[in-house]
Amino acid sequence: MTTDELRNKAVELDRKDPLKDYRNKFVIVDENIIYLDGNSLGRLPLATKQKMRDVIDNEWGSNLINSWNDHWLKRMQKVSAKLAIILGAKENEVLLADSTSLNLFKLVCAILNKQAGKTKIITDDLNFPTDVYILEGVVSLLGNKHRLIIVDSINNTYPDVNVLKESIDENTALVALSHVAFKSGYKYNAQEITEYACSKGVPVIWDLSHSAGSVPIHLKDWQIDYAVGCTYKYLNGGPGAPAYLYVREELQKELTSPVWGWFGDSSPFEFRLNFNPVETIEKFNVGTPPILSVSAIEPALDITIEAGMEAIRIKSELQSEYLMELIKTELLPFGFKIGSPVDVAERGSHLSVRHEEGYGITQVLIRSKKISKNVIPDFRTPNNIRLGISPLFNSFIELYEAVKMIKRVVENKLYAGYSSEINSVT
Predict the structure, then answer these.
(1) What would the mean pLDDT of 8-32 be, rounded to a whole number?
(2) Were both Cys, which of 1, 181, 303, 421 would link to 5 (CB 3.0–4.6 Å)?
(3) How many Å apart are CA 92 and CA 147, to the nearest integer?
(4) CA–CA separation, 163 and 249 (whole Å)
(5) Domains (range + CATH), the chain
(6) Are strands 244-247 and 94-96 parallel, antiparallel or unpaired?
């Protein structure tokens, strides 16, 4: 296709898009900024602004501590139940709490405590680094009795599924993987891997941070036992929003949380000095829930449930395929390489392109006044530019314009002279 034909295709796809009006449900201050970083931090829903005004002015400001009984304790269960709908789980199998890292720590410790005598823990080099750090930390905490095996990927893009499976044996205590890889966007067949591991008697924890809200997840139907994830990416819950953990109902009673806190107690407001954990998933609660953050998540979940995950995935695949077409046509001639699976069925909702000047290109896209529209992707070392597609607020024409800006930056070498010193947040 020619450049003009690609643009016309975007216009037509936007015209036919059944989800196009959902863009109006989000705060968009400047139409000249193309935001392709919803895979890292989602946009602010308009309904969240109103919700937070009500929570702050009325529930906190006017009702004060009465709101614990009137609103806040019930809200934790209510929002967790809405998240369970999106994850394809029962409402009593999902708990909003803490961070993804802490939730992973709690589940890893609880599972290893059940797997006495087994010493291998398996992950891969596509996993998010903090997940690996948690695994390393637990190994150290437990006296280095376990061995962490990190399976190498193919070109830092695909897992070698055969090697991964071969590494799982009777001595394996745990497998921990990201459902969608944070750099390449590769999407595991979580059901297949879980079934294989379970046939060997090995539990699997899935990190859903880069998949929840972008691809349909069916934890119950897939017979997934354990999962964790965050809510501030495709779920648009806000910066630092509480994470979640999932434990299949049948397994909850037999697990022991390694962190004992009063909100995990069966009667937290009796203030006993001996801990008596509740037998449900709420045993993994620790301290006082962050009500303001939990309140901010709810309107975003409502939008996702209303739109429907199947419809979101259909649009995501269409946009991802269109973006791939743009990349092949417009960017590969300028030294870019594709850093994501070519098959759309093997991708989540972000695409990585690689370029030796990747960081400089990203900085120009975000900051330069020499291009007509700024583009906000993100950068992951050593050379990955991630282009995140959030179907609820990204249009097809935005993808076209974004690639046009990327091409202009490289064609004119606008990245020359930009500092190579990488910012704390990229």
Answers:
(1) 98
(2) 1
(3) 33
(4) 31
(5) 3-44+308-411 (3.90.1150.10), 63-306 (3.40.640.10)
(6) antiparallel
Q: Is 232 a catalytic residue?
A: yes
Q: Are strands 226-229 and 158-159 parallel, antiparallel or unpaired?
A: unpaired
To the query of whether residue 169 is one of the catalytic residues in this protein, the response is: no
Q: Is 404 a catalytic residue?
A: no
Per-position DSSP letters for 330-359, written without gaps between them = IIGGGT-EE-S-SSGGGB-SEEEEE-TTHH
The Cα–Cα gap between 157 and 140 comes to 29
> Percent of the chain having pLDDT more than 90?
97
Residue 115 CA to residue 174 CA, distance in Å, equals 8
Active site residue 221: no
pLDDT in tens, 108-147: 999 999 998 999 999 999 999 999 999 999 999 999 999 9
**Interatomic CA distance for residues 318 and 394, integer angstroms:** 12
Nearest of 381, 375, 370, 361 to residue 323 by alpha carbon: 375
Residue pLDDT, tens place only, 188-237:
999 999 999 999 999 999 999 999 999 999 999 999 999 999 999 999 99
Beta strand pairing status for 204-207 and 384-388? unpaired
Rounded CA gap, 175 and 134, in Å? 13
Which DSSP state fits 128? -
- Token pair, residue 302, equals 């409502």
Length of the chain: 426
Please state, rounded to an integer, the average pLDDT across all residues of the chain.
Answer: 97
* Catalytic annotation present for 128: yes
Residue 419 has pLDDT above 70, yes or no: no
Q: Which of 386, 396, 404, 407 is catalytic?
A: 386
Which of 343, 341, 367 shows the shortest CA–CA distance to 352?
A: 341
